[in-house]
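Hey, resending since the last one bounced:
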Amino acid sequence: MRIDKYLTGLLILAALGSSLISGSVSAKEYFTVKNNVLERPTGFREWVYVGTPLTPNDMNNGKANFQEFHTVYIDPESWEHWKKTGKIRDGAILIKEMTSVGSKVAASGKGYFMGDFIGLEATIKSKREFPNEPGNWAYFSFTNEDHKSIKKTANLEPTANCNGCHEASAQDDFVFTQYYPVLRAGKANAENAVGGK
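The C-alpha cells again:
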C-alpha cells in the first residue's frame, strides 16, 4: 500500500472518530420495536453492569416473587447521560437477565451462587414508542415457560403487570436505584458536578 493512501485512510478514520465523539453521527439504536413487539437486544452483557439483586425463596416463606438472580445492565449512552445529569434519558433501555440459584455451598462457604440462565426481560423509556404508558416506560419479557430458552421477540406487557410497582416504589423515574449502588454512585457524580459549577 502506498504511504499516501495509508495516511488518507488514517485521516478519514480520525475524522469519523471525531464526528462520533461530537455527536454528529446518530447514536446507535439499542432496540427495535414494531407494533409493540420488541426484538431481543444483543450484546447487552457488554453494556454497563448495574447490579444483581436476589430475593430467595428461603427468606420469603418459600414463595418469593423473584427467587432468581436478576443481573441488570443499562445501555452505555443512557449511563453517560445518567452520570452527567442524574436523569434517565428518553430512549434508555435496561436489561434484566435472570439466573437460577445453582448452589448454596461453595469453597468460600454458604451463600447463594449462580446457576443457569433462565430468563430475560427489558424495560424501555420512550415517548415516541410508548406515549400512553406511565412515565413512557414499557416492559417486555423474553422468558419462555420452560425457563430453559428465551424468545427472539417479546410483546409489550400489560401496564398493570409492572408499572404500578415501579411507580409506587422505585426511587428514580420508575427505576429502583435504591438497590443499585452503581446507579447511586453515578447520580452522585452528576450532582457533585452540578454543585461544583
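The beta strands are 33-34, 37-39, 48-51, 69-74, 93-106, 109-125, 137-141, 153-155.

Sorry for the duplicate.
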